[in-house]
Automatic annotation (TrEMBL):
Classification of source organism: Eukaryota, Viridiplantae, Streptophyta, Embryophyta, Tracheophyta
Coiled-coil intervals: none
Highest taxon listed in the record's lineage: Eukaryota
SUPFAM superfamilies attached to this UniProt entry: S-adenosyl-L-methionine-dependent methyltransferases
Record's protein name: Uncharacterized protein
GO MF: protein methyltransferase activity
Any one GO cellular component localisation term in the record: nucleus
Species this chain originates from: Acer negundo
Length: 201
């Protein structure tokens, strides 16, 4: 018999935390128009932040659309692709793109967005698009994707506080990376200041 001070145990299925009410949304970067499925607001689960487009992606995509020659002939691995807005834009200008994320729900929407791009309506992509699961911090997985050659990153970073800029630079330096701010990229997106760094590993 249940005592009065005992509480009922509530078990929630993991689907309770997953919002998959995606909307087809158009994004324009220069002459490129991308139609992608995404959420319009953040999920209740912090691990599913890849289901929407963040200001850093908007900043980076604006830069890519204005400097697309940087990608010609390149192979791209996008880390933390989310819905794929940056990797899919890159595919318009380069040889091949591997889009990665670590969360299975995010990988599902990423695959749906790649399917949208390969449909007859959107089949003007120049590059092959592939999706792979990549756990952050798994160096063996990363090396398998990139091979043994030199790797260059372009990082769009949205700063909530000036002190964060030095933390990003110090962290890259600690890992023996070369990091340089790309001149002229510091700008405001929404209510956050953003900057783009070039990082060489």
């Amino acid at each position: 018999m249940k005592r009065e001070d005992e509480e009922d145990e509530v078990c929630l299925d993991e689907s309770f935390f997953i919002n998959d009410n995606y909307q087809l949304t158009s994004f324009t970067f220069g002459s490129q128009v991308l139609e992608l499925l995404c959420l319009q607001s953040a999920s209740t689960d912090f691990d599913l932040t890849g289901q929407l487009v963040w200001p850093g992606a908007m900043l980076l995509n604006d830069y890519i659309s204005k400097n697309s020659e940087l990608l010609h002939g390149s192979s791209i691995i996008e880390l933390g692709s989310g819905i794929g807005v940056t990797g899919i834009l890159c595919s318009k200008f380069c040889s091949d793109v591997v889009l990665t994320d670590h969360n299975d729900e995010v990988l599902k929407i990423l695959k749906k967005n790649i399917d949208l791009q390969t449909s007859s309506k959107n089949a003007n992509s120049n590059a092959g698009l592939a999706v792979e699961k990549l756990e952050w911090g798994n160096l063996e997985q990363f090396i398998r994707f990139k091979g043994q050659g030199q790797c260059k990153f372009i990082l769009a970073y949205m700063s909530r506080a000036k002190v964060m800029d030095s933390l990003v630079i110090n962290e890259a330096t600690r890992h023996k990376m070369t990091i340089n701010e790309i001149a002229g990229t510091r700008s405001v997106v929404g209510n956050h200041e953003g900057v783009i760094f070039e990082v060489t590993l």
